[in-house]
Amino acid sequence: MSPKQISLVAGLLVLWPGPIQAHDIYTDLLTRSGLPCCHDGDCRPVPYRLTPKGVQMLVDEQWLDIPRGSIQYRALAGDRGETGGAHWCGSRDAIGYFTRCAILPPQSAAIRGNAVSTPGFHAVPDP
What we know:
By secondary structure, this protein is mainly beta. Helices cover 10% and strands 29% of the residues. The protein has a domain at 29-109. The longest helix has 13 residues, at 3-15.
């Protein structure tokens, strides 16, 4: 290769877009104990609902009870809004699902069983 060709290839490599990281919106999320919420792409937008017992999220077509200690009320920069701002970070093993972090939109912290017309949100009224 000539020096001109090497320069051209090097220039193209610098300008070539790298893989798009869909998980970039989760990069800075930490659990309450300071550990990363996301490991190898295990965070995703999910529908959620409030029940008399607490928050549930629809993960793999199954409503999971979300531990209160894993819930964070915040907006994520880059959220596309398909689930009204709800995201689940966790894993599944032979025993079941483990929630590391559950992200809910800030306005949901004040909702107590009232119907809301937020995409992805399903309110379940108190009995």
